[in-house]
Amino acid sequence: MYSQFFKVAQLDEPALQKLIHVLVAIDTQVFTSTLQGKHYLAKLLTRMPHSQSKDRVIVYYDQDHQPIGFNFILMEKMKSGKRSIYICRPIATFLPQRIGNQSTMFDAIAAMVRFKLAHPHQQVYFLSFFASPFAYHLFASRYPALDLQRRPLSPKLHQLMQSCMQKWGLHNLAQQQGLYIIHSDALKISLQNLEKSKHTRFFIRVNPGFQEGQSLGCIAPITYPNLCVGTIQQVKHLFYRKQHKWKRLRYIFPLHKTKSLF
Predict the structure, then answer these.
(1) Please, what is the Cα angle at 136 between 143 and 112, to 5 degrees?
(2) Would you say 74 and 64 are in contact if contact means Cβ atoms under 8 Å apart?
(3) Cα angle for residues 44, 20, 50 (degrees, 5° grid)
(4) Which domain holds residue 151?
(5) What is the rounded distance in angstroms from the CA atom of residue 21 to the CA atom of residue 42?
(6) Is 259 a domain residue?
(7) Would residue 257 count as lying in a domain?
(8) Using one digit for the tens of pLDDT, what is the confidence trace for 31-48?
(9) CATH no. for residue 66?
(10) How many folded domains does the chain comprise?
(11) Which of 115, 129, 133, 190 is least surrounded by CB atoms within 10 angstroms?
């Protein structure tokens, strides 16, 4: 597998439309209709003139050069009081047969690190709506600031989440106070063999409608300590996947108590 990186600001109109076509083709193989991809992705990618966009897109290909997944990293500039802040929102997926074998987690962390280093004094927040227990587990186990079970949202984060949802035209479906659930589209993939962890159990408990197309929203500040924790957890996980060759590393680098889904 290999990937191709795009900066939306550097694309002309034909190239942008071609990229949208590729993303929609992947997205509609994962979800049950074109609601999520055809309209929503195109609307987000064209929400501002190209030259002003800080969005990034990574497209993943197999050995036959066929697109199998993408990671659309949306960078939204917003006002918080008198200050300008950025919201980093990755929207990513792989084809159903590829889910569980690859992850966009490292690319999302790398994008956040690069942006934070380029804007050291800029307040940046990570926001994502997780469509599956699998995706929530990946981020919550490696980026603890996103673990809603341990760290409920602060009043400031509630306000930011509400502002983002209002700007993007999203409606909160959550029945439980303090949570944010939106409707996107239903997944085509089967989750019957999903291994349970405390993160997947929490996700299923608070968002039982995920298989009907409901996604759980999470938001956290992107700070250097949070980025360091996320990077270290991801490196540990990459070593852990090689456990049949590197069993002793499990004692040197003990993992988070949640089990791996790989």
Answers:
(1) 40
(2) no
(3) 55
(4) 2-252
(5) 9
(6) no
(7) no
(8) 655 445 457 777 778 877
(9) 3.40.630
(10) 1
(11) 190
